[in-house]
Each structure stands twice: as structure tokens, then as C-alpha cells.
Amino acid sequence: MNRRKQPLQTATHATQKKSRRVKISKTLAPPLMAHLGYQGARHLHPQRLPTKSAEKTVSVRLLDLGNETIENLQKIAETIKRLMVPGLRLKAIPENLMDRLVLLEKLDLSNNQLSDGSLPESMKRLEHLVELNLNTNKFTKVPPALKKLKSLSRLDLSENSIDNLNGLEKLRRIQILVVDNNKLTSVFKEVCHLKRLEILRCRNNSIKDIGVEIRQMKQLRDLDISNNKLSILPTDVLLLPGLETLNASRNKITKIPAFNIKLHNRHWVSEVDLSDNQITVFPGHLLRMTEKLDLSSNQIKILNMNAMKELERNPNQELVVDDNPLVFPPAEITGQNAILAFIQEARLNTPVYRGMKILVIGSHKSGKSSLIQSMVDNQGRLAEDLNESVAGIDLYDLIYDCEMKVKSEETGKMVKEVRPLQLCLWDFCGHPYYEFPHYLFFEQPSVALLTFNMKEFTPEKFNEMIGCWLDWMIAKTNSLKVVLVGTQCDKMSKEKIKEVKAEVKKQMTEFKNYHESILNERINDISQKSEISPTLTERMFSYRKLLIFTDTFTVQSDVIATSSAEFIGFEQLRKSIELIAKDENQFPPTPDYNLPLVLHKVKTFWVDVENYLDEKSNSMVVPIMPWDEYVEEVTTKFGMKKQIKDITQYLHVTGKVLWFSSAPVLSDYVFIRPAWLFELLRNIYRHDFEEKVDFGIDDTYKQMGFSQTRFERNKKELLQHGVMDKDFLRAILGYLIPPDMKENFNFLLDILLKGFKIGYPAAKKSKEMTYNFSPEIENIENVSKILIPWLRKTAEPEEIISLWEDRNDRERVAALLRFPKYIPPGLFELLCVGAQKTERHNLTFKAHWSNGILARHNKIDAILMISHESGPKGRGACLKYELRGDSPDPVYYPTRPAAMWTILLPLLQDFEEIIKSFKGVLVERQMLCKFCREPSFLGEWNTPKETQNLPEKVCEACGEKVDTDTLVQQREEKRDDVLLKLGEIRARRKDAMSKGMTLEQMLHEEELDKPIYGRERRRNVGILQAPDIAGLLPTPTIHVGSGDDSETADVDETTETNMENIRALYLLNFPGITNEGTVSDEETLEQTQEEENVGEEIIMTKK
Which residue stretches belong to region Disordered (predicted)? Predict the structure, then answer.
């Protein structure tokens, strides 16, 4: 008890003595007080200065700034890390305050009266200062003294009168910046260089817009820009990769721009607060990326049913729409659960109408993205260059309320009805790099908006801006309905706009006339010939078919002038799209599929299938279903197996799924999330690959064991040689397919190689530092590298040029494919990938460069070159297939044209199969003369019969007689009659020469040996008697059979011709025969070459 009373007695005693101390204080200085914090302590404690404590002082809060206080502070300055001098009404900071504070990390000067110039120069000594608080002062600009604080990471300038943030550019380490309650009208331009900035608070200012500079602030995770004067919230803010919290409440925002959110790689934002604004259209797309979305106190009337599906999928999401004038759902429906229940019921009772797919194409930076965003937002939008240069294809959804006349089910009369026209917009990047990969998505009927910059248009630029795109589309399909859209008309006078429109219309007429003149000229040339061969007949038919094809290609020649900046012309564009949608003749039913017309009702269970696949795609790592699995799963759940193709085709033409029904291999798969496939191809074909793909940005490379050196090596290999390392591709696609899912990746790679034909397997030779273009690959898991022809830009190797020239005098067969007007981009690359199929063509690639390949046949002594050359003035192009003999002994064992045709014909058949998908391409097939090497002959491999009956043809260029064996593959009968007999002679010659038999004895031998072909024939033989040539060709008759069973038969004209061929071929294979009928020692034949060329030819033909 006493111990408890002792403190009271001490306190009383202290109080009694206090009066005496006060009297003493009249002659002594008052004690200097401060709040001190010692190392390891959690709180500050009041202490006198100077302190006598032996503990290390690390924190100080001063209660005054007298000279004596500063002097006492300097005595302990070397250990102080935190100094607080708030609320002292200071107008300036003494120069000597900062002396000796070498370890200071935090400085608080808030709630004073500091103004511009009040901070001393001595602050530059604070090299370790991390945090500075200058809030609630009288600064009008950023204090210049801050420029030297290179370690500063947290800065508070709130509650001042600052009107700009110039001066922060050297504070590279800033992570937290607070500038609330100032007079700022702009922020992001001044702080965009702060690469490490994570938290930015700038509420209660006068900021009117957010510039594109914010894109550079990739580390920003918390942004508070509430209570300003914003009218538009840019897409760039919401797409910041690190954003976690956004507060843009209490502004004047009227609409949130639409943008493409990649579901497979979306970044979730914890909270987006857009309350107390003037938003009228429900920004449902934000539900795809936000955990909590606050839209309270706006002007929203309708909640989109499709957008609300996101809330149904994710019950943890929160949507706040209080205090809005809602009509759908009605205002009396409150609470998130009640709203969702109402929308689900409404969805069941609301009919769905078929929508339409719109492809937006045009040159790079022609204004496509601005046009699309303005269409989607229904207000003027400008997309900056960085946004418009995105790679590949982006998807957007848009709904127009379309008024149309329909027949009433009740009265049978025509009445007006408003139906929603659902549009799926595909934004094609206009960079030339994508002309080949984008071709795949042009095979179905749709509308195409072809954009061009009206301000930059001149008559000379018509082909560059419009003509080349029309060629690009016509080459693939005539099912597109093209609308010409001019952009940037706000920068032109009305007279100039009319002038451009008239010029485009004139050039469009000339474009069509030129296209027709090319075809009509060729038709007339054929018509004037006295005799028209089957080949010419087929060619004329193809020309007329092309004329009909181009006539049905619809282009709206009246240009729609638009301005995304001023939102001009969009009503006219909308009407044009609605007219196309209402016209039942634009997309008529096809015999292959029974689909509803645009703006007509879709069957309910078709919609159920669409919703089911939409849900399923979000749960699949690789949203690709093999066709059989797809059919099984959908029909098991919904039935109607007979309609599965119609349903899938409907989903395809409306852009909900991708099913390439007419493409080999790809038709076996359904891609149930198109955006995922677009993103996949974007990472393989990317024009800005060198700039965008960086080791430091993506951790996937490190997770897969890549070092910086290996990364750079693989990246260089792709950029310089067009060779993609398999692991490098896995890392690039790591955010689409996790690296540990090898089976999924191999499944996808198989589709890429066999279906999309992006390339073929290759392997690197470590010693020579070159590539093996035909490695032996057992399965897809053994692939190490992939050569992508579209990306390969290397020059033809010198050794290949030399090798090819060395065989310049050999036997040859050459086919030429001329494209007088336009060659589809990527055609040569597709042919190269197809030629590499060993099981079909039996070729070993020796070289592959930007516009050619060279390959050797694995059984026949021949080399093949496929080359691609542009036409004169960049118009048109040529593809050439040329085979040359590659026999080690071309004198005695030349490779015959018949054998070369067994190589060439399957390659040409591949070409014919591929060109079928390019229905609007004009191609002329020709064969080269073996003497002058001019394309003097028709390419008749599709209709060879007429030429097969001729022994030779005369070249119109050089006048030489050319053996038809070099122009067409000989027919079956001739090859059996001539080449097979030659094969028999060669096969039996070995035995005859060894026995010294004459040819007559050989032909009439009792037992005829079966011809033998192949490498086993390569042997040296001794000297023998020359066969009797006269016995080969008995003039009026021929012996049939052998031995006693032989008989004499009359020789018809055909047999006589064939026997003449045998005589010539025989002489070639028995050189050096002397007049005495013997072969000299010096002329002994060395059989060193494969003789499979003829034998394989016969065997393959018979099969």
C-alpha cells in the first residue's frame, strides 16, 4: 500500500517546489523542449534540449526554431533520421537548420507559411532524404531546392497554390506524389517521366483532361483524380498495367470510352469509383476488369443485359448504381441480386436477332481506331498514334437500334418495329506486315469499311490508299460489301471534300475498267485464234469467271466523309450500315447452310449454345475444341445434331466463334474465343516485335530459365533469320498458355504448323552455325526450332548461286506462274511450307531465303528451285518452279524430264489447291523453253492430253523444236510403251554386257528379267561386245513375247514412233560403240549414278 502512496507524495512535493522554480526562472533561460525519439522506440517523448540521454536520437519534433534550439539540434544531428517542424507558422527555414543532418531521411515542414524561395540552398546536402512533407503552405510553384534531392521518393505538396508541376523532372525516384487542393490544370505531362511513381493524388484541382503521356506511367497503381473538371476519362487510364485503385468521382464525365479488354490476360482493378458524374451510357465493359465499380449518382437509364453476364459469372464482383434514373431494370428493383434476377428473366423473354460482322481496314494511321471508337461511343474520339499502331486485330461490340417494317403476327399488316442490330467490329491493323496473316479471316460474307485519309489524298495516291486494298480483298473473296470512308474531313473545305469525292469516284471507275480490260484483252486474243485448244478453252472460262466474280464485288463509290474529332458523318455511316443490314439480297441464304437473315430472329436454342460456349471459353486455357468433341458436347447438352453445322456457321459469320469450314485441317477445330486467337497470332506476327518484346517486362522468360543473353540471341535469330526457337515461342505465349502446360502448347503448335502453316520445323547445326531445313522429326515434341517464311528476309547464299549456275547446262523442266495484276501476299510462303512435306514431296531443303528455296530430291537426281519475283513497276509478280538434273554423271546417266515431272507435278497440284481459296486472282500458267528459257508455251499440266500426243513443239521465241517431255508429263500409255521398255533395256543391259550378248540375243532370250531400279544398279562393268542395234527395230514387224512363244505382229504408227524413241534413248545409254561393234577399254562405262529416275517414274505412274 505504501508503495502505492509514494508517487502521490512525490507529486505533491514537486508541486509545492514548483513556485520556487518559477521565481528562479526569472533570472535563468527557459528550458528548450522538443519531442525526441530514440533508436528502437515506437513513440516520441518530450525532452529538454540538449538531451543528456546516452541513447541514440533518431527522431526529433521541434517546438520552436530559435538559434539556441538549432545549436542544440546540431549537437545530435549526426544520428537524426526524422525531423518534424510542423505548425510553427514559419515563413522561412533557417539556412543553418540543415547543417550536419547528413542521415536525415524524413523532413516534415507542413502547416507553416512557407512560400516560394523560403527553402534554403543547404537542403541539397540532404542526400539521404526519402520523404518530404510541404503540405498546407503558400507555395505557388515547385521549390527549386527539391531538384537536388535525388533520393526523394515521397513528396506531399497538397494544400498550396501551385498551378504547375514543372521542376519535378529530375526527381526520378519519386514513388508517392500528393498534390491535392492546388490550382493545377495539368498534371500528367509534367509527371509522366516519373517512371517509378506508384501513387498519385491530385483531387480538388482544375484538371480538365488526361493526356496520352499517362501511358508511360506503367508503375502507377493508385490514382485519385476526383473533384476536378474532367469530361472524358481516357482509355489509357484504365489500361495502365499496374492500376489497382481509381477514383474519378465528382467530375463532369459523360461517357466512358469503349476499349478491347483481353479476357485471357486482363488486369483486375480492385476498385473504380465513377460516382457523381454525368455518365449516360452504362460502361458495362468495365465489369470485365473491375472487382468493384461505383456508378452511383449518374444519369444511366439502361443496364445492358449482355454486359451484366459478367456479374452472373463472378458473384464476388460489386456494382453500385444507386441514384440513377434507371428504366431497365425499373427503379423499384434495387439491390444487386434483385437486379440480376430481373435481367435473367428478361433475357429469357427477349428475342435475339442475327447481327453482322464489320471489317474495318485501311492503310496504317488512316484513322481506323478513331473511327471505331467514335462509332462505339457515339461521340467524337481521337486515338493517338500509339493506340492505332497496335498489332493484329482488335474486337469491339456495337448495337444500333434499327427501325424496319415487319409483318405483324397478329394483324398480318406491315408495321414499324425497332430491332437491335448487333455489330461485331474487327479492327485490322493497316501495317503491310499483316497482309498475309489477316487473309485467313476474309472467307465469309461481311461488310468492310475501307478508310483513307481525305486530307492526304491525291490522284497519285489512289492505288496506295484505296486500290491496293481493293486488290487485296478481291483476290480473296467477292462476298464483301465495301463502304468507302474518308477521315479527317474537318481539316478540309467543303469544296475540297467534293473534289476528293469526285476524284475517288472517277478513279474507282478507271480501276474497274482496267481490271475488266485485262481480262477482255485475253479473252479476245483467245477468241481470234483459228483453233482453240482445251487449255485455251479452260483459260477463257477462267477469265470469264473472273469477270463475273469482280462484277459481284460491291463497292459503294460515294465516299462518306467523316471526322472523329468533330463527330461528323457518323449518322450517314450508320444509315449506310443499316441499309446493308436491311437488304435481304446482300447476304442471301446459301445452299450449304440454313441461316437466318440479318435482323431476323435467331432460334432460342441457338442463343443457348452461344451463351454456353461463351461461358466455356472463359474457363478454358486453350479455347480450341476439336470438331468431334465440339459436336459431341453441344449435341449432348442441346440435341439437334442435324443443325450443328448451321449453328456453328451462324456463330462464325457473326464473329462469336471461328470455324474455318473450307480450310483443310483447320476445319477440324472450333475456336470458341476469337480474341484469344487474334492475340496468339499477334505475338507471332508483330511489326513492332523488336520494340515491344523485352526481357525485363515479362517474368515468363526468367521462369523458363532464360538468361538475358539467351533471350537476346533468340530474339536476334527471329528478327534476322525468321527462325523461332520453340522455347522462345513458349515464353512469348506464356501469358496465354502457362509454360508448365507443355501438352497444351504442343497441341497448339501442331495446329499452327499444320493448320495455319506458319512455318516448318528446322534445326540448328552447332558446328557450321547454319540450319538444317529438313530435320528428321518423329513428333511435335521433337521440334526445336520453327522457320517462319513470312519473317525470313535473308539473301540468297553465294554457294547456292554457284551450285545452281554449275547445273546450268543440265536437263531442265521449268514452270512459270504469272500474276499480271496482283499476287496474294503469303502465297509463296504457303507453297514453301507445303513443299517441305517430306512424306508427299520427298525433298530435302538445302537453302531458304526471302524469295526462294532450293531443295534436292531424295531419290531422283534433281534439284528444285522455287523463286518469287516482283513484276515491273511493282505491279504483279511471278512464281517459278525449275528443276535441273543433278546426276553425278550427267553424260551417261542424265536425269530425264519424265523423272522431273514426278517431282514437279505434285508441287503444281499443291499450288492449284491453294489458289482455289483466292478466287479473284488472275494467274497465267506457262512453261519455259529449254533452249531460250523464255515462257513460250502454255502451262498445260491441268489439260495435258493435246500436247501429250505430240513429240515436239516449236518455240515461238527461238524457233527451236522442243521435246514435249519438258512441257507436260507424258501420258500413261506412252510411258508404258517407251519408258518402260527403256527401263527393261537398262535393267537387262547389266546381264547382257557381262555375258557379251548382242542386243538381238538379249531381246529374244527365253526369260526376261524384271527391270531393276535404284542404287543397287551402281556397279562397274567389264568390256563387252556391242549389241546389234539393227535387231532393235525390225521395220514392218515387231516380235512380241520371247523364245518359242514369240510371234510377229504388224507395227502400227504409234508403235513405230515409240520404237524410234527407244532407238534414240538406247544410243544415249550405249555410247562409245565402234564400227566393229565393240567397246574399247578407254570407253568402259562407270555406272555411278542412281537410275531410279526412270524406274521410280514408271512405278509411281502405275500406282
Answer: 1-21, 1081-1103
